[in-house]
Write a structure and sequence with these properties.
The protein is an alpha/beta fold. It contains 16 helices and 13 strands. A seven-stranded mixed beta sheet has the order 2-8-7-6-5-3-4, sandwiched between helices.
Length: about 400
């Protein structure tokens, strides 16, 4: 008897291993300094770990409420009011999620019906388009300005249609490290004013905005807040990306639909970490001091390459730095993906090609020829210095 596994028709036929997994594996194989994947190589505050330990020892080890531990939702609401001036109801408008990626997928599953259009501004985080497709939506790709990576509102306006259900925006932006201005947020509010379009605002790097600037959350703008799901990440803010804990803030009617999907995907998020995070948030200093912490790392990295032939693009937020390598005497002839592979094998530093943040083949081809790559500087100083020494040899 022949036994065969039934053949599947893939829901995501164009998706393979992510570039982050590929480049991290290549870095490990060649012993390279990994400035590719976006996670810190240093520990979090021991006080946060102790807060979680205390929660475990105190017996907080069973299911929490589906929308999250109330104390954590209250702490999030208080933080949003203090930092952005918008009042969210902890009971009805804040939901704790298993990371920001789950939050984005759940948001799309909750609001998108088959055939609805969802706009993304490319280059963008690589989960957006597959998540839209899994929800049955149609991805509408609008390019950011290719030189500045800023939103082009004429292009956004032209892409709006009666089928547009939502727009996903991201500030501070991954991969370009740009941040939206208050004027750009106002322009978006004016553009959407007479529409029913919803907004998913990915703000996981909200506490990494530099040079004295304020993070322009959509929560600061009442017109936008009324139509938005605002997503942020404790993992990014407190250097615990492996914990996968985030939150979504949205008006009560939108949150109700979000929670309908949330309860049938993950239902809830692990209890002791929620208790620990709630206690840790009582002191605002860790997230208020984060911009200066990462600005020092940004400045160290930029200063280390200032005399090199690598051209540094502006970095106003996040923990990423984009580089133009066209002026190098070695490797500059290579498209960005091949250059990153060469850089990892031959120089010993791993980076991510910008083309990986595009999904259309023609946009990927344009990005590959632009010769821009992304480094992550959320690393120990000795890690950055080791990478800088290798990169300066170029």
């Amino acid at each position: 008897m022949n036994i065969a596994t039934p053949q599947l028709s893939s829901r995501l036929p164009r998706v393979g291993a992510t570039i982050f997994s590929t480049m991290s594996a290549l870095a490990q194989a060649h012993g390279a300094v990994n400035l590719g994947q976006g996670f810190p190589d240093f520990d979090c505050d021991p006080a946060l770990v102790e807060a979680v330990h205390q929660a475990m020892r105190s017996g907080h080890n069973q299911y929490p409420p589906m929308p999250g531990v109330l104390a954590l939702r209250e702490a999030v609401a208080a933080k949003l009011l203090t930092t952005h001036g918008h009042s969210y109801c902890p009971d009805r408008e804040i939901t704790i999620t298993a990371g920001a990626t789950q939050a984005i997928l759940t948001a799309l599953l909750a609001i998108v019906h088959p055939g609805d259009e969802v706009m993304v501004l490319e280059p963008c985080y690589d989960s957006y388009a597959p998540n839209i497709e899994l929800a049955g939506g149609v991805v509408v790709r609008v390019p950011l300005d290719p030189h500045s990576f800023r939103p082009n509102f004429q292009h956004i306006h032209a892409a709006l249609s009666p089928r547009t259900r939502a727009i996903i925006i991201n500030t501070p932006h991954n991969p370009s490290a740009t941040t939206w201005t208050a004027e750009e947020m106002q322009s978006l509010a004016e553009l959407l004013r007479n529409t029913h379009v919803l907004l998913i605002s990915d703000e996981v790097y909200e506490h990494m905005v530099f040079d004295g600037a304020d993070h322009q959350s959509v929560a600061r703008f009442p017109e936008l807040a009324a139509r938005s799901l605002v997503i942020s990440s404790f993992g990014k803010t407190f250097h615990v990306t492996g914990w996968k804990v985030a939150y979504v803030a949205a008006p009560a009617s939108i949150s109700a639909e979000f929670r309908k999907v949330h309860q049938y995907t993950v239902f809830s998020v692990n209890t002791p970490m929620q208790i620990g995070l709630a206690r840790y948030l009582a002191d605002p200093r860790p997230y208020l001091e984060l911009p200066a912490f990462y600005q020092r790392k940004r400045d160290r990295f930029r200063a280390g390459l200032a005399t090199s032939r690598l051209r540094l693009l502006p970095c106003s937020g996040s923990y990423f730095q984009c580089i133009d390598y066209q002026n190098l005497s070695r490797g500059s002839e290579l498209p960005d993906k091949e250059f990153c592979q060469w850089l990892t094998r031959e120089v010993g530093v791993a980076a991510i090609p910008i083309s990986a943040f595009h999904t259309l083949p023609e946009h990927q081809a344009e990005a590959r020829q632009a010769k821009i790559i992304r480094f992550c500087f959320a690393k120990q100083d000795q890690t950055l210095d080791r990478a800088l020494a290798l990169l300066r040899e170029l």
